[in-house]
Model the fold of this input.
Amino acid sequence: MDDLDKLKADVLAQVAGAADLAALEAVRIDVLGRNGRVTQLLKGLGQMDGEARKTAGQALNVLKNEIGAALDARKAVLEESAIDSRLAAEKIDISLPARPSRTGKIHPISQTIDEVISIFGEMGFTVAEGPDIEEDWFNFTALNIPPEHPARQNHDTFYLDANSPKDGAPLLLRTHTSPVQIRTMQNTKPPLRIIVPGRTFRCDHDATHSPMFHQVEGLVIDEATHMGHLKGCLIDFCRAFFGVDDLPVRFRPSYFPFTEPSAEVDIGCSFADGTLKIGAGDRWLEILGSGMVNPKVLENCGIDSTKYQGFAFGMGIERISMLKYGIPDLRTFYESDVRWLNHYGFAALDVPSLIAKAR
Ligand code: PHE
Done:
């Protein structure tokens, strides 16, 4: 009891020196625990009497409170620094750049299909699809290309097993997206306004032809649709797609069995110094086929050709993609070369449209 000041100084030094919560708890037990140094002194009060007990009791209580307060204060400090060091240890550096070789790209074919869909989508067209493996009727006969028709020879067709014909003719890989015209007209009542992107197949392989390629077909059927609509729609499309407001567009008479009259569509360009420039100049590039739907095709689909008429068009996706993005060789589209895709590919949200252009 004689040296409470020394005890106090000693304990406070221990408290201040406790490096972590466990060391502090050891000091608390050493001083205030069941057999702690201050606890022992408090127990000893019982043997004292009168005035001395009262004075010593007060002094011990003051000391006990002071030590308790010092323990609490040190505990708060240690807890805070424990949280700080945990935060520092568990920190993740989100500023590290992602590994660049992992960035994906949209293939030019997908990008071009998206662009075509968004331009025609804004003109009120909806997307229709059909199977890659087709029946002779949908790919040829219903499109006014009967057996023995010379146009069949222009489509170097891949036939499937000739021994399992459907209605007498073998199945085939569709040579164009036009069979989806027939499928749609047989299943849906006019008015119709569809575009049909998809894979097509012809037995052909060089710098501008691949045995598998893509087309997008268009079909509009209504009661008063005329050739002026065809021209306006396709001129608007060409200008929006190539991003040239005054792009020259030419309609050149042509022949397709399923349209009458038919027109090939050319856009104006120049070839100065061996570089193709779309939009100006004295050269023309053919980009699509079109025409007014042949009444025989409407009748083949059970549509009254005295009431309904319309137009159709079809174009090669690879071709318009090569022209727009300056890709010289069609075969490279399918070589799956990551360096090629990094060069010609697109960012995920890069989808231009007529609306984006107007802004
Ligand atoms: N199907 C034709 C082709 O593959 C393109 C076309 C479609 C022409 C629709 C006119 C109308 O060459």
